[in-house]
């Protein structure tokens, strides 16, 4: 079964850090780019960051650029999101998702997500 | 940055009726980069349509996508009880290398 399972969420003070992990199974992990997408409480979807198959190319939403770092370990079938200088507005449910391959652009497998709460 | 605007914000219909959801882009979008998702409360989004009009694996044929350029449509031909959810459109900008989502349309039971 193709599956993504996130972990690492929690409650953190503004200015703090968290590292999210996403464990992939059921597919050849290094065949795919991956993304993180978040959803603030009661709000819509916001793409946060993406990484290509080998980690050589990364992209970020303007809202997190310079604070968040995406990475992957293909030997461990794992995706990560290092979140520094967290703000109250980063409070959200964070999903990892599998990117499609060229020429299409969509996310076809999603994890159930992990909750990040930034509060003083 | 391309902005996607979905309408209506909320759509109230009865089972068996036809639903038409709109997604309008602030500038032209490649059809290969346009997708639709369904999200139910407490669940992850589920891919419905990719490439503007291709159904994802396992998606019933009552779901269809159409459109090009700046105007795209998701149609549900005959609503089933399990179709009441929030629907998002999404595009990928090849120059920005970013995904963006519309704000969502909530499809509720009338």
Description:
The complex is a heterodimer of chains A (120) and B (110). With 120 residues, chain A is mainly beta. Chain A is 0% helix and 51% strand. In chain A, the strands form two sheets. In chain A, strands 2, 4, 5, 6, 9, 10 and 11 form a seven-stranded mixed beta sheet that branches. Chain A starts with a strand and ends with a strand. The model of chain B has no long low-confidence stretch (mean pLDDT 96). Chain B has 110 residues and is mainly β. Chain B is 0% helix and 57% strand. The interface between A and B is medium-sized, with 21 and 25 residues.
Unreliable stretches covering 5 or more consecutive residues of chain A? none
Write down the overall mean pLDDT of chain A.
97
Which stretches of chain B are low in confidence, meaning pLDDT under 50 for 5 or more residues running? Answer: none
Describe the oligomeric state of these chains in a short phrase. heterodimer
Shape of chain B: globular
Order of helices and strands of chain A: EEEEEEEEEEE
User: Outline of chain A, from the CA principal axes?
Assistant: globular
Helix content of chain A: under 10%
User: What is Rg of chain B?
Assistant: 13 Å
What value does the average pLDDT of chain B take? 96
Q: End-to-end distance of chain B, in Å? A: 36 Å
Largest sheet of chain B: 7 strands, mixed
What percentage of the residues of chain A does DSSP assign to strands (E)? over 45%
What is the number of E strands of chain B? 10
Query: Sheet bearing the most strands of chain A, described?
Result: 7 strands, mixed
**How many H/I helices of chain B?**
0
Task: Give, in order, the helices and strands of chain B.
Answer: EEEEEEEEEE
């Amino acid at each position: 079964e193709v599956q993504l399972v996130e972990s690492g969420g929690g409650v953190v003070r503004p200015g703090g850090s968290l590292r999210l992990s996403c464990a992939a199974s059921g597919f050849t992990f290094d065949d795919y780019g991956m993304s993180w997408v978040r959803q603030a409480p009661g709000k819509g979807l916001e793409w946060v960051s993406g990484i290509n198959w080998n980690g050589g190319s990364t992209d970020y939403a303007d809202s997190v650029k310079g604070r968040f770092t995406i990475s992957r370990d293909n030997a461990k079938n794992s995706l990560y999101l290092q979140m520094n200088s967290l703000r109250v507005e980063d409070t959200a449910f964070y999903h990892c998702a599998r990117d499609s391959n060229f020429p299409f652009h969509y996310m076809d497998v999603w994890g159930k997500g992990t909750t990040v709460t930034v509060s003083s | 940055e391309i902005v996607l605007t979905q309408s209506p914000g909320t759509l109230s219909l009865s089972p068996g009726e036809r639903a038409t959801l709109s997604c309008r882009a602030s500038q032209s979008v490649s059809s290969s980069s346009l997708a639709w998702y369904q999200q139910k409360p407490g669940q992850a989004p589920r891919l419905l349509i990719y490439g503007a009009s291709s159904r994802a694996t396992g998606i019933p044929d009552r779901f269809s996508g159409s459109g090009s350029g700046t105007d795209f449509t998701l149609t549900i031909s005959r609503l089933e009880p399990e179709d009441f959810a929030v629907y998002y459109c999404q595009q990928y900008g090849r120059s920005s290398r970013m995904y963006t989502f519309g704000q969502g349309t909530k499809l509720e039971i009338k």
